[in-house]
Amino acid sequence: MHSPTFQELKKNLKKDFSGLNKIKVAVLGDSATQLYVQAIRGYGYEIGVSFEILEADYDQIERQIYDPASELFEFSPEFIIIFYSTNKLLKTFVNLSNSEKSTFTKFQIEKFKNLYISILSSISCKILFFNFTELNDSVFGNYANKTDVSFIYQLRFINFELMNLALQLKNFFIIDANILQSQYGHKFITDNNIYINTELLFSIDFLPIIAKNTLDIIQSINGRFNKCLILDLDNTLWGGIIGDDGIENIQIGDLGIGKVFSELQLWIKQLKQRGIILAICSKNDEEKAKDPFEKHPDMILRLEDIAVFIANWNNKADNIRHIQNILNISFDSMVFLDDSPFERDLVRTHIPDIKVPELPVDPADYLNYLRTLNLFETASFTEEDEQRTIQYQEEAKRSIIQQQFTNERDYLKSLEMVSMVEPFNTFNIPRVSQLSQRSNQFNLRTIRYSEEDVKKIAYNKDYQTFAFSLRDKFGDYGLISLVICNKIGYQTLFIDTWIMSCRVLKRYMENFTLNILVQKAKESCITELQGEYLPTVKNKIVKDHYQNLGFIFKENIWRLSIMTYIEKPCFIKLKSKL
Amino acid sequence: MGENELLNQVNKIFIDVLDNEDIILTKNTTAKDVTEWDSLTHIQLIVAIEKHFKIRFISSEIRNWKNVGEMCLCIANKLNK
Q1: Which of A86, A130, A135, A499 is 20–30 Å from A440 (CA)?
Q2: Cβ of A202 under 8 Å from any chain B Cβ?
Q3: How confident is the model at residue A411, as a pLDDT?
Q4: pTM of the full structure
Q5: What is the pLDDT of residue B77?
Q6: Residue A266 distance to chain B (closest CA, Å)
Q7: A406-576: what fold?
């Protein structure tokens, strides 16, 4: 993983952006934002995105937003970045009376909320809002904490209320500039002689960091984020070598530099609780490698935290491919941690898409370094995220059983699969939206729907919606597939969205789904189902989806006649709530 | 460091930051003579020069040079202190 300099990002601007995925972004700021914009576009090249950026003129935030005929609305961006600076905030603040100062936050937050409402009433987009970097104005000293007329009190209050605003407003996201300042320091992120001459707030060296942070948010909203952390064991999760030193001598807890590894494990445990899948990939005898997870009193990670545990003497790239096979998520959503430069290099060479942090030499620096990388950005959090490890452990068991059946049908029958089908409702809407945001591979048209969008569709009579859950004898997959049909003619249904989680590939779930769609279509006197495949870089696995299901391609659309449809074979029982 | 050597090093920084191999600086070169040299790239040049020579310009210096010669003189003064 390479951290580019601003100079390198700038050189990217001359490269060929054609063929890259396009994203439209508007940047509105009350300070000079030109270099920030260059850094975003340059960083876009690094991650394969061509950002088309509208940069509003200096200090035009309100005009752009309150003028319905402004360039902003004409441009119609997917993301709007709003950047009010602490310096300007202070300028406003100092001119106020004491009573105005004490209600400053309420006033500012009201203003920010109105901006949001005004934008969202005209266009549908996501707002990324900079919070305020802290500034010691040195007027009250430490007493600033004890009076609400101090700038520091109000500044911190605004940052806090911005978080509350983000809780409340679905499409409002915070760019946490303040936490970056506490990570890198005020001195590093600003350059006074440059600010005085140009109104550019950030130092050249900070620009790549703030640009990356911005893009992390955009990417995660668009469903591109890391889902799995693969860990080496010896000298990565504990100090020492289990095979040589034995369980009583590995460094974890109070022994040697064990604290380093305890803290690292605590962090990893929290990631797991947040829904990151953990896997082990270690050169060890399996039994010895598992020993500390079961018996060592100071280990924080336990076997039940690990979705896939691989310890053998094969090459690590092959083992990671095996893990990928079981988990069925793409390599570019995986992170691999290993203290050995040799192993890191080998994995990087054979699996270029996987992220491999260049761990520092001193384990004491591991955790701080990893935290600066912002590896686990996310755009949502639901209760299901917490259950994910269990689901993947069940999957690992299934893959062992599968090897015992030579006949696929016998295997599928033995799974005793049951699917529940429901229209979208209050309970499943968050998960439906999450699936729509996150699924890249089995996704026919890759249209992303927010919770708001899903709600609108659920209550629109012209739409039929289907949410499919699946369970088998090993466990519950939860909601794994969704279909949105749009009635476009008297007797025609268009499949606007067909998404399935790749965890249930090869279960004939798509056959089952189509059987249900046809059955419902018949009930509403539909004679034709229409489908469309919109190709993206990631959805090649469904290229022939409609063809395989017996649709005929005519006049640029895939068509299926309901009358002549013969029910497709599948091994899934229906439990309906339609 | 001699005058020519200093100019030479500054020239290299210009080539690198402005991404243009053809830049040849003289003492009399001004921003008008180099296409890519505008107020924004000026900032990058300043930062690159500060890093390279391990010096720090004060705010008023940054805006007062009339040409590359004055800029080099300013650098030389700081290096000789």
Answers
A1: A130
A2: no
A3: 81
A4: 0.74
A5: 93
A6: 39
A7: Aminopeptidase (3.40.630)
Residues paired with A27 in a beta bridge: A55, A81
> What angle is formed at CA A436 by the lines to CA A432 and CA A440, rounded to 5 degrees?
140
Residue ranges with strand state E in A492-545:
492-500, 528-531
User: Mean pLDDT across the stretch A83-95?
Assistant: 95
Task: Measure the CA–CA gap between A512 and A65, rounded to whole angstroms.
Answer: 48
- Structural contact between residues A265 and A300, judged by C-beta atoms closer than 8 angstroms: yes
The CATH number of the domain covering residues in B3-80:
1.10.1200.10
Query: Quick one: A462 exposed, middle or buried, by C-beta within 10 A (0-12, 13-18, 19+)?
Result: exposed
Nearest residue in A to B64, CA atom:
A197
Nearest by CB: A34 against B40, B62, B63? B40
Question: In chain A, which segments carry CATH 3.40.630.30?
Answer: 406-576
Minimal Cα distance from B19: which residue of A? A11
pLDDT at residue A208 in the model: 97
Sequence ranges of the domains in chain B: 3-80
Subunit contact A7:B46, Cβ cutoff 8 A: no
Proportion of chain A above pLDDT 90, given as a percent? 78
**Span A6-221 CATH architecture:** 3-Layer(aba) Sandwich (3.40)
What does the block give as tokens for B55? 């010096």
Between residues A553 and A381, which one has the greater pLDDT? A553
In a 3-state reduction of DSSP, which class is residue A531?
strand
Alpha-carbon A278 to chain mean position: 16
- Diameter of chain B measured on Cα atoms: 33
pLDDT at B32 over 80: yes
CATH 1.10.8.60 fits A228-372, yes or no: no
Q: Where in chain A is the domain with CATH 3.40.50.1000?
A: 228-372
Contacts of B48 in chain A (CB under 8 A): 7
Q: Is A146 exposed, middle or buried (0-12, 13-18, 19+ CB in 10 A)?
A: exposed
Confidence check: pLDDT of A123 > 80: yes
Residue A135, min C-alpha distance to chain B (Å): 21
Q: Considering only alpha carbons, which residue of chain B is nearest residue A6? A: B44
- Cα A236 to Cα A98, A233, A555, B35: the distances in Å are 55, 5, 58, 51
